[in-house]
Amino acid sequence: MFIVVLLLLAALVPNAAFADANASTSTLQLPAIDYSGSIFLYEYMPDMPGADPSFDLYAFELNLDSANSDKTLGVHSQIRIRDDKLRSYYNSDIWFQELYIYRKTDWGNFNIGKIYRQVGLTWDNSFFGNVEYFNGLMLNTNYGAEWVDKQSIGTAWALSESFQYFPNEGLGDTDGSLAGRDVNSDADAQLRDVVTARVTSARSLGRGRQIIVGLSGLNGNLKSLIAANRNYDFNQLAADVTLDWAPLSIYAEVLQQNGEPDDSQHPYSRAGYDSATYFLGGLLAHLTDRLAAYFNYSSANYVGQNALEQELLPGATYTVAQNLNVIGEFDYWRVVPHVGGGGTLIDRSLNLVAQYNF
After folding, report:
1. What pTM was estimated for this model as a whole?
2. pLDDT at 232 (0 to 100)
């Protein structure tokens, strides 16, 4: 029902480009498809027992875009191709990362299709990722609908908002979560009727300087497909701040997730379902026109798992040529129980990437 209402709103909202009857024919005509993309060659060099090094095609990304003459109505898609599946629960090694129709209006932009969930910061500037990403909280794309808008307030302020609805997330969807961590690899559960809302306020502090503060939230229902009494509300609340002070950028996010109440010994327990407090913080420095360095720290303090998961990731990107970047990162990632001492090393590795953009 929400998608139907959104489609009707998008169709009825006045737009200056549609006011000219003489331009109506050309407005609805879609031109040739524009394309762009990236190729990622990835070498993984672990420093831990039982882990094997690898070198392969991490992804071939192809963006296809088509729009009408005034760019108010169009289609965007991103296709990703690998030699093998990114995660074992993926249906194929070829998939749509994004696929949506968009309509730009005087009342904001309306997108319908496969889109990124907007809760918290979009990304942390790394290649390898962070704890939120591996639990399915970040860079998560699903089929749904959204409204996004941005307003300028004077010359120094800008306000951005988004509202999204996703009817169902479940097995075979394509986020970056590890198998066994969230609903995308759980054949016995679905996350239904997800609603997200996000608002950010950006304040310009002069050339190359700004501060951005964001608040966002999510609410849905985690439904078991095999146990009638295993349905419960699933929600998140996040606050983030980014300070750009050229050549530096500092960012931080705190996200509170209220989810599954069970401990780690329960058969339905998963890290991505657990009630937890997530933290992500980092620093990006543009040292030269070609060289950027960064450091990220991410963590999840789990209630049911009764543990702290931490990941530290320093890295650097060097622009070899206009379309060619080389990325180097070191990842240290572990889980430490709150009681009993010890801990489990998940990953310790050096990661090298060659990225070619076209």
Report:
1. 0.90
2. 87
